[in-house]
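User: I'm writing a tutorial on reading structure tokens. Could you give me a worked example: one chain, its sequence, then its tokens, then a sentence or two explaining what the tokens reveal?
Assistant: Sure. Here is the example chain.
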Amino acid sequence: MKSEGICYLVGAGPGDPGLVTLKARECVAEADVVIYDALSSPVILGWMKKGAEKVYVGKRAKNHAMSQEEINALIVERTRAGQQVVRLKGGDPMIFGRGGEEAAELAAAGVAFEIVPGISSAIGGPAYAGIPVTHRDHCSQLTLFTGHEDPDKGESSIDYPKIAQAPGTKVFLMGMARLRAICGSLIDGGADPSTPIALVRWATTPRQQTLEGTLADIADRAEAIDFQSPAVAVIGDVVKERAKIRWFEKKPLFGKRIVVTRTREQAGGLSKSLTRLGAGVMELPTIRIEHPDDRQGFAESVAHAHEYDWLVFTSPNGVERFFDAFFKVYEDARSLGNPRIAVIGETTAAKVREYRFGVDLLPERFVAEGLVEAFKKESIENLTVLWVRAQEARDVVYDGLAALGAIVDECAVYKTVPETEDPTGALALLADEGADLITFTSASTVENFFKLGCPWPAGCVAASIGPVTSDALRQHGVEPAVEAKKHDIPGLVDAIRRWAAGG
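And here are its predicted structure tokens:
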């Protein structure tokens, strides 16, 4: 039986993907096709399920990928075909986004649809600039209008004299191309030329810029620095509050474009930490994790893990792969027996503890050499050690422990391979717009980044998680500007923060 289609008209918010609603994310994750515009964050497209289709219909200024009539026909056609369609629109689909027109087309076609509101840049933009659109000391009224309509045309539907004389805050969208004319019309309509105004460009993103002035001089100021769309304009005394409560632009990594090259599954933690500090994060996974070539050997090693005196884990991936396999064989954690557990790095230790096992040995230096040094303080001669590792790992641990007299077996639980998918178009974005810093968390991320063939962006520097990764960068002619003192993700984030502060 053919399934009934449905179209969700979804607000993608003003730019920061963290401002997308839970329902919007759910719709994107379940969609068969996402039809999106130019203001949608590429991060949102990364939430799509495997095999879902992306259709770009972006409209900005005079550059239209598809006309509104064509978009209307497309969403009706796909919904009628039984697909779950998401029409992803920047901001809120019902605030100057023509969402009402699209909903009317869907209704006329007799197909199912729902509207999922989003945070409009009319509200989100000023908030991220430190401007409350309402404030009891300044106003209790808010007027929204579009700047897309030419105020000089004879049949304008916007009554500028009434807007000019209305009390409270005025906010207009899509008006950068007509800024001078709009301000002039408001002044002609009776607005005080000294009224404060702020323009917020690329609101809620690390590219955000805020320009302040008055109705009389803001056009001159904007033209002097080529301040262009997309931007929201806020008019009124509330602009004065920005001096006290601007917060977003004060973040330590604000304005920095940072590339994360970790696997798609692992990128989240690093991306979130950098985003919280104000960075614009571009996820460009260069590797992905797959099963090892010798899957039978892996399974046998896991099944016999209880026979060893020591288990050694050198990465969170290894821990996760090992214990996921272990609990497919055994139902009881006590089946692991009583081996002692050694790990490299706090992150790996935390992953072990997630499975309710303790860590007996954690070296001060989070590298293989540090682990071998730590074992020198233990008596491991003739003891059995199972080293849980990546297939392509260096032999430092094996050689070092064997030299101390241990009987070492290796258990390759995963391998890293080049990532071949780029669902968000991050590679093209990096090539076109560049970056300030690219992060590398292993030698394999380095090797596979350079295999992508993307030229190193002008003015960009590299951040390394540790000496092994730094050596890999040097082999490609890149001297890392940042190297974590503590060789884990928190250490890398801290090093990047110090770099941004000039330390």
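What the tokens reveal: The CA atoms of residues 323 and 355 lie 8 Å apart. The chain is about 35% helix and 20% strand.
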